[in-house]
Amino acid sequence: GIVFQNPDLQLFANTVEDEIRFSLKNLNFTKTELENQINLTLEKFKLKKFQNRTPFTLSGGEKKRLAIASIMCRNPEIIVFDEPTIGQDAEGVEFIRNLIKEKHSEGKTIIIVTHDIEFAIDNIPRTILMADGLIIADGPTNKILSQDQILNIGSLISPQLIILSKFLIDSGIKVPDDVYLKENMIQFLGSFFKEKMEISEGGKF
């Protein structure tokens, strides 16, 4: 399944409910099963209150969510997202992040086309970086996005956590390899400053 960058190129039905119904109608559901699946999808993607609205009256973020729902309801084995975070607020990005993690844990193949390096560093384990139609790097996301030469070729800027990690290292602080993840950086800094405070209170700092 492919989720387009611009949902207006993907949506066409008269109502939000019909958009989901069209995606499901060839999956051999009984009428009852079909209606149940439609309702489950609308609930999961927080679209129930819009079910009788035309998709083209929704906000950009809501359209994107509907486009994703219309693909996900078919439970495809391979899912391609084209710039999934564009037009999404913080809540929308978090929803997409959790959805990607859920599908990945189910063994689905997830391909994400994105320029959102902050989203990539925190959610995508492997990156294939392209420039001018050519592959210029392929490997662990944190390794690729920490190499200035590669980023310059791809006209990208280092993620904030990579910049912070380099600053700490340049300041003489030993930083573990996995702190490019937000949760790990928070945990590391918490432990680091707690240790410094304990040393200071003990009169050894």
Automatic annotation (TrEMBL):
InterPro entries: ABC_transporter-like_ATP-bd, ABC_transporter-like_CS, ABC_transpr_CbiO/EcfA_su, ECF_ABC_transporter_ATP-bd, P-loop_NTPase
Keywords, sorted A to Z: ATP-binding, Nucleotide-binding, Transport
GO MF term list: ATP binding; ATP hydrolysis activity; ATPase-coupled transmembrane transporter activity
Domain ABC transporter: 2-85
Signal peptide positions (record): none
A single GO cellular-component term on record: ATP-binding cassette (ABC) transporter complex
Positions in coiled-coil regions: none
Protein name according to UniProt: ABC transporter domain-containing protein
UniProt organism field: marine sediment metagenome
